[in-house]
Amino acid sequence: MTLKPWREVIVPHEDVLEGKFQESEFAADLTKVVDGVAAPDYQDPVRFFERTVITEGMSLLLQSVVKRLGGKGGDPVVQLQTAFGGGKTHTMMAVLHVAQGRVPAKKLLGVPELLEKAQVKELVKANVAVLDGNALAPSQPREHGEIAANTLWGELAFQLGAAEGYRMVAEADRDGTSPGKEVLHKLLTRFGPAVVLMDETVAYLRQFEHGKSYKGGTYNSNLSFLQALTEAASRVPNAMVLASLPDSLMEVGDEQGKHALNAVEKLFGRIEAVWKPVGTEEAFEIVRRRLFGPVQSDKARAEVCQAFADVYRDEGERFPPETREAGYLRRLEASYPIHPEVFERLYEDWSTLPKFQRTRGVLRLMARLVHSLWRADNRDLLILPGSVPFDDLSVRNELVKYLPPGWDPIVDKDVDGAHAEPRQIDDATPTLGSVQACRRAARTIFLGSAPSVASQKVRGVGADRVRLGCVQPGQAVGRYDDALRRLTDRLHYLYTGNERYWFDTRTNLRREMEGRLSRFDAELHIYPAIGERLAHLVKSSLVDAVHIFRDSADIQDKPGLRLVVLRPDQGHKRKEESSKAIAAAAVILGKHGDKPREYQNRLLFLAPEASAASTLCDHVRRSLAWASIVDDVDELNLDRHHEKEAKKNLDEAKARVEGAIRETYRHLLVPMQDAEAKGGLSKVAWEDEALSLAGSSYEKAIATTTKEKEWVISIWAPTHLRALLDKWFWKDGQVSVGAQRSWLDTCRYLYMPRLATEDVFARAVHDGVQREEWFGYAAAERQPGVYEGVVFGAPGPIYLTAEALLLKPETAAGAKAAHRVKGSPGAEQVRAPGAAGVKGGGKPAGGTSSAPPAAQRRFHGTVTLDRADPIGSFASVVENVLEHFTVQFDTEVRITLDIEARRPEGFEAKVVRVVRENGATLKFNTAEFEEQ
């Protein structure tokens, strides 16, 4: 079955087809009809009812009118009050044509049926008076030949009874005083059946100033007239009054208008109106009949509507629930060729705007829309929200004019301009372009979200309604889901949340963020930000320091163990022997600035995964962009909702950065050498291992990996130290070696064990000298072969000074025996400055018998750093002062840093916030700003 597009099933009326309709033709004007100068569709009763849908409310009202005019009941006074453009004037015009009785009922489409319902055989011809508040003025009498009607009652009397009628109220008309209900009762009785149509009554009354008299009377005299008129009409069986009242403040106008509306509502409030506003489904038929001729093929229409209903049923949850109900098929047929969703959006969303007219506005828009689609040879099966050609300025302007300023460029850029992003996506993607998926989705979102986005508690339209506004039978629904994803990624003014989509005049925060990404340079911003996060995450008690992104000159060449974190662009892959990470690490390993590095065996390296580094940089760049938006909340004029969203996105971006760091910085690189390789010492070999960071910290992961791989030794047995001494130091008849030298050599050479600290070495010495099988210890060798402070076979004080020696067991035994023979208690040993040691049992050996000088137990010093080079200045303090304490065993060192900064004009809010946050992150004891 081949489904026919709407243009082959139904044809617009000639004026719509040719674009000859005038905006004024959509505005019903009672006075023009009375004067005989209205457009044919309004002036001619036959044409009027041909293009008028008799709604439920209009039917009830007309039944009441024909009953009343025939003296068979009906309401004497009816109040018509609906929203702007709700069809009040159009309804009064229908009453006018019925009451005038110029054409037999049988020629008026739909009128015979309502006569039958009212049980009235024929139309009763009545005298009709039309009091149009927009056509009358309090200070300008209305001329009728020799008679000039000054007031509403003068105009009423003349229209009902010409000169005779006017004479009944002439005196009151000249004086501007209300004629009273008895006079009006006589007037309505004499010229009945009578119908009084009062349109825009409030528009007339708001022109009166309190306490001021006009030719049209006073404000109070007019209110008295209205009250007298309604009471008089109630007493005349074949007379009735219909008055239209506004329902929106926009129509009411100023304060005087509000007072007038309140007063008139009280007068008419006693009377229950039969009027019911036009319902949405009734509006379907109103628009269809006004814009289109009859359906040329009921079968073709039925097939199209059934095909749409089948799609909604088969796709289940992908469309709104009501589309699967049986009644939705009837709605499709009733609104054909316009999809019901177009009316839903116009009547539910756009009609909430103050200036949008429910009937007239929709008619005017749809006339332009249909003309544009017809001219463009549109082949859609129905006119859907996705069909609305916003690239046609006449269509776009008809909607945008109701919106606040700023929407035109949004439509141009993000909806349907010549170079709009949705069009570009469609053009670049054949699967989407074949159905214009992105353009149709953007149009649907705009139609459903632009009018009320600022006031909606739940913003935007759901994905199900976007599909409803786009999909036609035979199309894959998934294409529009793909279109939504692409639009979300690309559009600047499109927002999304909870599967709802909306446009807003504020640029999309995510697009604003993406626009800021280019601001951030890798060297100036990205790497420092990564380094800052690494400083918080990468901790290890194994090392004396963690050096992040430092050049070789900035990484101290000292015996302390150090972890060097390589830059993001120095990536590594597991077991790759020539990675950028290894090349960078080799430079640092070999040099300390311009000099060869001495303590090579004290460096460990943390390298990034090469394939993950770029992703990490992207996450950091986005985090910085979000941070800049949060900082610029005031400059961007963000409301509280968008400010909250920006902060939420920043928090999420920071979390992604931390996760990306753990995914990226996971390779531990350790340099090794083999001293027993063929041809001597081997080249430096790099062992690597991926840290297990799942559910673990860097601290634990580094400790676990280095322990399992024996890359760092925290507990060292004396037997291992003895093997080291035998292999490298006690050769060629040597019987001793400097204790400090042997420790420092383990720090220098990559083929030696890598001990965690000097204390590990000292502890091995301390434990080893207590037995006579491994080695002995001497505090010094004063003369060749003469040792002082010998410790061997028992606990004793151990210090790794420059003079201390490790002795072969037999040498240590001989030295100990020599001391016993001499009866010497052993030389006292005073801890040398800068020496590390392990306290043992017994008294210190060596020295004189005189009392030692008073012990200096505490040092305290303050220094002002060079503010131009604080890092270099502090490094000098560390190297020349601090390290003399830190290398000593059992020395407690506490370092504090005092920072004082002053600025006469005060610090900017951004600086205050950043410093406070960073101070808290760095665990400052105090980080406060003062006003003084």
Structure, explained:
This protein folds into five domains: 40-268, Rossmann fold (3-Layer(aba) Sandwich); 280-505, no CATH class; 518-708, no CATH class; 718-838, no CATH class; 870-921, no CATH class. Helices cover 46% and strands 10% of the residues. It has 39 helices and 23 strands. The strands form eight sheets. The chain has a five-stranded mixed beta sheet, with helices on both faces. Strand 19 (780-783) and strand 20 form a beta hairpin. The radius of gyration is 48 Å and the shape is elongated.
Question: What is shown here, in short?
Answer:
By secondary structure, the chain is of the alpha/beta class.
Task: Assess the beta-strand content as a share of residues.
Answer: 5-15%
Q: For the residues shown, what is the average pLDDT?
A: 85
| Strand order in space, largest sheet | 10-11-14-15-16
By CATH, the architecture of the largest domain is named 3-Layer(aba) Sandwich
What would the CATH topology of the largest domain be?
Answer: Rossmann fold
Number of helices: 39
Rg over alpha carbons? 48 Å
Number of strands: 23
What is the end-to-end distance?
A: 85 Å
CATH class of the largest domain: Alpha Beta
Shape: elongated
The assigned structural class equals: alpha/beta
Could you list the spans in which at least 5 consecutive residues all have pLDDT below 50? 823-852
Write down the domain tally. 5
Helix content: 40-55%
Q: How is the biggest beta sheet arranged?
A: 5 strands, mixed
Describe the protein's topology:
Blueprint: H1 14-17, H2 30-35, H3 40-43, H4 45-50, H5 56-69, E1 77-82, H6 88-100, H7 111-118, E2 127-132, E3 142-144, E4 147-149, H8 152-167, H9 170-175, H10 181-190, E5 194-199, H11 201-205, H12 219-235, E6 239-246, H13 249-252, H14 255-268, H15 280-291, H16 298-314, H17 326-335, H18 340-348, H19 360-375, H20 393-400, H21 407-416, H22 421-428, H23 430-433, H24 437-449, E7 461-462, H25 463-468, H26 477-490, E8 494-497, E9 500-503, H27 509-516, H28 522-537, E10 545-548, E11 562-565, H29 580-590, E12 591-592, E13 595-596, E14 603-608, H30 610-631, H31 633-636, H32 640-664, E15 665-672, E16 685-690, H33 698-708, H34 718-728, E17 736-738, H35 739-748, H36 758-768, E18 776-778, E19 780-783, E20 786-788, E21 798-800, E22 805-807, H37 809-822, E23 836-838, H38 870-886, H39 909-921
Parallel strand pairs: 1-6, 2-5, 5-6, 10-11, 11-14
Antiparallel strand pairs: 3-4, 7-9, 8-9, 12-13, 14-15, 15-16, 17-22, 18-22, 19-20, 21-23
Helix pairs in contact: 5-6, 5-7, 10-12, 12-14, 15-18, 16-17, 19-20, 21-24, 22-24, 24-26, 27-30, 28-30, 30-32
